[in-house]
Amino acid sequence: MSKAEKTKQHIIEKTATLFNTKGYISTSLSDITQITGLTKGSIYGNFENKDEVAIEVYKYNAGLLGKTLSRSFGEEFHTSLDKLHALVDFYRKNWKFVFANGGCPLMNAATEADDSFPALKTQVRRSFEQWMTKISAAILEGQKKGEIGTNIDAEQYASLFIMLIEGGILLSKTMGDQSFLNHALDKIAYMIDHELNILPS
User: Fold this and answer.
1) What is the signed CA dihedral for 75, 80, 84, 87, rounded to 10 degrees?
2) DSSP conformation letters of 69-132
C-alpha cells in the first residue's frame, strides 16, 4: 500500500466504531480529526468530504460483518440446516462484540439512510440484499438436497430471519437486556427445525 492508501485505511479503521456508535450523520469532522490524530487538511487530502468518509466507513463495517457471517455458511457444515443454525449461533456467541461496537452497522445506518443521505441508503440496501441472498441460497440448496420443503419461500424466510435478528438487536441494545435477542434467535431456531426441516429427527 502507498502512503496515501495507508493513511486512508487508518482513517477508516480508527473511525469505524465512532461512526457506528455516534451515527454517520452526527459524526463531525472534528470528531474524525480527534480520534485519528490527523488534521482537517489530511482528511480532505484523502476524502472529498465527510460524507465520503462515512460511506467508506460504512462499507468497511458492513464488510467486516459480511465476512464473519459468510463463515457461517462455510463448507464445514454438512447440511443447509447446519448453515442456518450457524447463523443463529453467530449472534448467540458474538452479541457482546456487536453491542460493544455500537450494534449492527446495517441497522444503525438504515435508521439514517433517508432522503437526506441517499448515497448511504443505496449502500445499506445493497448490504441487506446481499445478506438476504446468502440466506436464501442456503435455503434453496437445502431444497435441492431434500433437506428443506419445496413449499418454503426462500426469500420470505430470509427476510423474516433478518427482521427478527435486527429487531432483537434493537430491543436488546435499547433495553440493555440480551433476552430480547435470545427470544428472536430461539424463534429462528424453531423455524429452522420445525418449519424448514423435513429430515427425520
Assistant:
1) 0
2) HHGGG-TT-SSHHHHHHHHHHHHHHHHHHHHHTTS-HHHHHHHH-STT-HHHHHHHHHHHHHHH
DSSP string, 128-145: HHHHHHHHHHHHHHHHHT
Task: Enter the C-alpha cell of residue 167.
Answer: 429487531
pLDDT in tens, 9-38: 999 999 999 999 999 989 999 999 999 999
HSE toward the beta carbon, residue 142, CA cutoff 13 A = 31
CB 98 within 8 A of CB 106: no
- pTM of the model as a whole: 0.88
H helix or E strand, kind and range, residue 148: none
31, three cell numbers: 470528531
